[in-house]
Amino acid sequence: MACLWKQHKSYWRNPSYTATRIFFTTVIALIFGTIFLNLGKKINKRQDLFNSLGSMYAAVLFIGIQNGQTVQPIVDVERTVFYREKAAGMYSALPYAFAQVLIEIPHIFLQTVVYGLIVYSLIGFDWTVEKFFWYMFFMFFTFMYFTFYGMMAVAMTPNSDIAAIVSTAFYAIWNIFAGFLIPRPRIPIWWRWYSWACPVAWTLYGLVASQYGDITNVTLEDGEVVQDFIRRFFGFRHDYLGYVATAVVGFAVLFAFVFAFSIKVLNFQRR
Asked: Domain locations in the chain?
């Protein structure tokens, strides 16, 4: 409890941490919402459909990377305090890691609500309970695994500077294999396995399949049904949403577990 209370005070007493993330999220939401204004219902043309998909893809990368990068300096500083408190016998590694993970959830939830309400209403996605829930669900766990990934990178490296370099390299790889620039069915077979190991690919799968994967009453300019196009071009199936949701949650849990394990096992303290 002492560990959790210290993390709570250190995060929320620093207004720049919360304010920066919420401000950045609001600005990006307004930019994307106005750029792609009312495109959610314009799916009779293939280009309009690509524009809607691009708004999802860009938001995931912009806000996700921002989450992963801004949390790293804070985790780095808190780890130095942890070394001192651990040496004094105040608390062990696992309660500390648990507090670090748990205290991020309110920030991420607030981000998701702010971004989701602004973008969903401006772009004009279908206002059904199921689709809105899926959209908020995938955005919440996407922001979460990006944040936990940034924390994990710090826990596995000596400082936040090296963590930023390492994590940025993987962001570039995730960008390539996300399934938007190069759809998964068009990736060479010897590299397609990495698409399944890319967390952003699962997020894009979930967002696109939940919004457009069940549309059978709308056809594109060449007569192809939207559902058939999504399945043929991107390989996204609406009936696989349960598996996709499990994968996205799994990445968040995996990164949090590796973060906790690294905090417990690795020690970069200079003597």
From this structure: 17-265
